[in-house]
Amino acid sequence: MEDASFNLPPGFFFSPTDEELVLHFLYSKASLLPCHPNIIPDLDFSQLDPWELNGKALFSGNQYYFFTKVNENRTTENGCWKEIGVTEPILTTVDKKVGMKKYLVFHIDEEASHGTETNWVMQEYHICSSGFETVSYASARRRRKHDQSWSKWVLCRVYEKMRSQQGVINCCTCSDDDESGSELSWLDEVYLSLDDDLEEIGMPN
Length: 205
Known about the structure:
This is NAC domain-containing protein. By secondary structure, this protein is an alpha+beta fold. It has two domains: about 5-160, NAC domain (Metal Binding Protein, Guanine Nucleotide Exchange Factor, Chain A, Beta Complex); about 165-205. The chain contains six helices and six strands; from the N terminus they run αβββββαααβαα. It has a six-stranded antiparallel β-sheet. Strand 3 (about 80-90) and strand 4 (about 95-110) form a beta hairpin. The longest helix is centred in the C-terminal third of the chain and has 16 residues, at about 185-200. The model is unreliable at about 1-5, about 135-150 and about 165-185 (pLDDT under 50).
């Protein structure tokens, strides 16, 4: 397919919620159901560094969206994606867990002991199959029928983390008594923002 087929028409902005990404896009992909509009492409991200996604993934705002097959080896030619150990539940409006979201950061030079951390962040969406088995009898049958492909796909949202604005940085600095005045890294700020997100959605029992 041509790259242009992934571009949104003028005036349209793709800004789905986590629930919409799982229910309307990833679930349809994993269940082999038609997805309308079918605007998110399939990519093998092991063949692409994050700065090479332009023109290949669906781009909206400052974020890239694409499907890829589940692969624990997230190495590319120039680096690798590493999980930061944060997993968020994705809940419906009735607090039904239907998926989870993992956070990864791109590091350059995977041959090194740690590599050089970049500002590229990936949110990797996975389906929670148990959450769909009770949605309907038909969906449970589709799950069994296409069991081999059920967990084969994940949906990725990639963006480049920008430096925080001064007001946010001030909130992350040490107290006035700390003469060093050191700031939290952008990754620490991600953890702090996750705390706020989790408070809004509530954690499952």
